[in-house]
Amino acid sequence: MRLTFASARVWRYIMAGVSKFIEFGLITVDEGGLAFKAIDPSRVSLVEMYIPRESFDVFEVDGELKIAVNVEELGKILRSSEKDDRISLEFKESSMTIEFERKGVTREFTIPLQIGSEAEAIPELKLELNNRFRVPGLLLYEGINSIEGLGDVLTITTSGEDLHLIVRSDLGEAEVVFNTQSGSLLEKEVNEPDFKVSYGLEYFTYVKLAMRISENVDILLSPEMPCKLIFNFPQGVKMNYYVAPRVE
Question: Is residue 43, in this structure, part of any structural domain at all?
């Protein structure tokens, strides 16, 4: 079973963040594509990535495979990649080989696998979230990056046409505002006006590099509910990221 993807960049940026707070993840490969799913030990955040078959340059798959992979080790390997590397994954009975190729030079890394062992530990989430905002990925990255380190709690709220990201601490308050007039808010659907919900800021900083390369990010929210971020990457790659609300 072998898969080849044109660019290692998306893999690198996603796993660079996920590997900071998640130990193991589940990779499922079938004739439709590749899915990656993982939950952090505290069960505050959950990641789902999907790459359809059509996005791969090489897709040699026969049947279905479910494997548990050490995300920390995978993240270390992917951080060694360059942005213009091609990436190939080859699955064998008890190992996965990650291959980077650039300018005729090939680099290979092999890590052990645990077939199917983690599948039952990761829940399926079905949430009704009544407010949706679409923000350019780079602008969301810049917003999170600018308030990182200024506090521990991220409060997301709306007022009129605007979406607000607010961090407060003993040192003061920082706020990032997205709105349709400036073009920083591409789309919005608000069914619960003037809501407010808070999350741990660190869980958003973990995926800020993924925001940077995402074409846009959909932010789905409801009061006292998890936040769902939908990342839309180049080449048909999508990622859902859930963060549980902070309990005061």
Answer: yes
